[in-house]
Amino acid sequence: MTADPLDQILDRSAPARPIPDPADVRTMVLAARAETPVPRRARRTALLSGALALFLVGGAGVAVASSDWLWGAGLDDPDRVYSYTSPTWGECELRFSALDTHDLTTNGPVNRIVDEWFATTDVEAAAAPLVPRFLAELEDGRASDATAEEDPRQADLDAWTAHEQAVSELVHAELADNGFGGDALAGTDSHSQVHCDGEDWGEGE
User: Fold this and answer.
1) pLDDT digits (tens, 9 = 90+) for 84-138
2) Whether the Cβ atoms of residue 202 and residue 40 lie closer than 8 Å to each other
3) Looking at the domain assignment, is residue 93 inside a domain?
4) H/E/C letters for each residue in the chain?
5) CA distance 48 to 131
6) Is residue 132 part of a domain?
7) What would the pLDDT profile of 133-158 be if each residue is shown by its tens digit?
8) Total domain count for the chain?
9) Which of 61, 69, 73, 108 shows the greatest Cβ crowding within 10 Å of its Cβ?
10) Nearest Cα residue to 56 out of 22, 12, 92
11) What is the pLDDT of residues 47-77, one digit of tens each?
């Protein structure tokens, strides 16, 4: 096939793809979780998205909460499960997807490291000391925002965010210990999903 000269010109003129600063990404994660409302009369799914760093600081992903108990792609029969108790929603289960590094040479090793970590680690016990710090960060962020409105589900949304970020930090540290630190996995995609026994995403509002 003959290459289109216009396509070649456009490819050469395309700006370099920026790599977000980890600190900026984390700020965006917390802001998105604290401020994104659940759409009224939406389908029974709450979607919080943006430059979320699930597993990796600097990675991209989507966090989903669904009341219909239909797990997303790659989460139907997960090897990466984390359970916690939410303030009013009761028992919750977080499922984490595989990571897509977009690089055949790193994708397999990275996911084997994460799978082994989940299989050999008491994840709930490891995350427990980290959760209070993430909860405090969320509360402090709202305290400094005079325009913040209190959501009746806030405690449960905070719990979701804090537990998910605690696990993400632990996995990031495990990958770094195995040679995948810094910018080694910039641009990696992953996602997670949560279900709670008494979850309420406000569909009837």
Assistant:
1) 999 999 999 999 999 999 998 999 999 999 999 999 999 999 999 999 999 999 9
2) yes
3) yes
4) CCCCHHHHHHHHHCCCCCCCCHHHHHHHHHHHHHHCCCCCCCCCEEEEEEECCCCCCCCEEEEEEECCCCCCCCCCCCCCEEEEEECCCEEEEEEECCCECCCHHHHHHHHHHHHHHHHHCCHHHHHCCCHHHHHHHHHHHHHCCCCCCCCCCHHHHHHHHHHHHHHHHHHHHHHHHCCCCCCCCCCCEEEEEEEECCCCCCCCC
5) 20
6) yes
7) 999 999 888 887 766 677 888 899 99
8) 1
9) 61
10) 22
11) 332 223 343 334 444 455 555 567 887 788 7
Q: Give the amino acid at 193.
A: Q
Is the four-CA dihedral 179, 124, 71, 60 of positive or negative sign?
Answer: negative
**Overall average pLDDT of the 40-50 stretch:** 30
Q: Find the distance separating the first CA and the last CA of the chain, reported in whole Å.
A: 55
Quick one: average pLDDT of 12-35? 50
**Could you tell me if residue 116 is inside a domain?**
yes
Please, which residues have CB within 8 angstroms of residue 158's CB and are 6 or more apart in sequence?
135, 138, 139
Q: What's at 105, amino acid-wise?
A: T
Domain extent for 150: 20-196
